[in-house]
Design a protein that fits this description.
The protein contains 7 helices and 9 strands; from the N terminus they run αααβαβαββαβββαββ. By secondary structure, it is an alpha/beta fold. A 7-stranded mixed beta sheet has the order 3-2-1-4-5-9-8, with helices on both faces. Strands 6-7 form a two-stranded antiparallel sheet. InterPro entries: Methyltransf_25, SAM-dependent_MTases_sf. This is Class I SAM-dependent methyltransferase.
């Protein structure tokens, strides 16, 4: 496991309760609920999707409430425990995004809210290709990222302490998705300043 991933896990384990309280709803994140609803409209009820970097389970609970079967994946065990308390029927799996513990073609879609922003640039390409591997043909993804051209340790607004932030221009992130095999890659601005969401599909039969 990369040192950044280790540090990320420790930070979220140590601050799980406060982070869950700070991110419990959507009011502080303009446009996020609309992004999630757009993603869920692409998923048929009863299909399995991956909430990658699920955090405290807010989005997992929302998707589950819409009849979608969700696997909540996160590197932080304390975050996953919070997810299970919030959504007892969710399947919660501790996961390193660069080595996902799932079979090929397992999911009909993937939602990654501010997840890849915590991955070191040297590991990001591998993480995106891992996501591609575990998706079935025809699967759709939505991943939110923060725009910029820097990376390093920084204090975020929603949690105390330092976390790794990899800020990346939409064009570069889109290219990395394409390089992994994703098609119909698109990016659009979010309601949150400097944030964007990238959508893409894995071609092939479902």
């Amino acid at each position: 496991m990369h040192e950044v991933t280790w540090a990320t896990r420790r930070a979220y384990d140590a601050n799980a309760r406060s982070y869950a309280d700070e991110t419990v709803g959507y009011d502080k994140f303009p446009g996020l609920l609309a992004e999630l609803e757009r993603f869920e409209s692409e998923i048929a009820p009863g299909q399995w999707v991956l909430d990658l970097g699920a955090g405290a389970g807010r989005d997992t609970a929302h998707l589950h409430g819409r009849g979608i079967r969700v696997v909540a994946a996160d590197v932080s065990l304390e975050m996953l425990r919070t997810t299970r308390r919030r959504c007892e029927h969710a399947c919660a799996v501790q996961s390193d995004m660069t080595a996902l513990p799932f079979r090929d073609a397992s999911f009909a879609g993937a939602w990654a809210c501010a997840s890849f922003v915590h991955v070191h640039s040297g590991q990001l390409g591998g993480a995106l290709c891992e996501l591609y591997r575990v998706l079935a043909g025809g699967a759709t993804i939505a991943a939110s990222m923060k725009s910029g051209d820097t990376e390093g340790w920084s204090a975020g607004r929603s949690m105390a302490g330092q976390r790794w932030f990899n800020l990346m221009a939409p064009e570069r992130f889109a290219t990395m998705l394409s390089d992994c095999g994703f098609r119909d890659v698109r990016t659009r601005s979010c309601g949150r300043p400097d944030w964007y969401v990238a959508t893409a599909v894995k071609l092939g039969q479902a």
